[in-house]
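Q: Here's a chain of 261 amino acids. Please give me its 3D structure as tokens.
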Amino acid sequence: DTGKKYQYVIHTSRNNINELLEHLKSGIAQVGFNNLYYDYQVLHWILKNKDLARRLTPLELTTFIYEESNRAIREQGGSYNLCRNPLIPQCDLFLINHYGNAARMTSLKKLEIAMRLSNVEDLPFEPGHWVQDDEVQKILDYNECDVIATMEFYKRCTKQIQLRRQLELTHNIPLINRPDVGIAEDLFLHSYCKLTRKSKWDVRKLRTERSEVWMKDVVLPVVKFQTQELQNWYEKFKKNRINISDLYATKHDWEEETIRI
């Protein structure tokens, strides 16, 4: 709201770990892009190990932070509970817009171009680069560019965020970082469990176990074909049975199916 800028450095030339910890504990909320599964993972480690962080030298601390960063990248995020119950409230624009879906996945850089921002910068150094004293400012400038881009995208997501906040107040369940489809799933599950008095965990585990599936039971009756060749094939197809214990073999049987019309 104020436009005030905060920048913290942990480096042999400047160590702001105490100031950073005070800022993180000041009652702030955080907005980011893929922050729940990356940025916050690193900040969470710092918060959980704050006493150790204060004792370490900048070189030792950045080594720990670098390892935690690699873990977050390697594991594609942290535990479910950590992400659902962060120590600092998180608003993740990446998740809200369903960019975690493989078909929709988008980087912040692509968004910067799509938003026609006047300045789009790439990382000035390779990941793992040993940062020299005179290179710290370049990283700060790069980070600021990404923060400005994130803030611009945040403004464009205002209606989506307001909807989620209102739904959270109405239903008392966490929805702020859920995509539209996820909101529908969570509300449906919440309402069902409220009516049936079942736990969400138990309902999520419910499923029907089958050893086989007949295609005639899963093809909708509206499916129709006009040509005799396809009609013949369709009748044969409906007589097919899928063995659940050997899905690969069943799939292989139909891979080479050819119909000449």
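Q: Can you summarize the key feature?
A: The CA atoms of residues 29 and 89 lie 5 Å apart.
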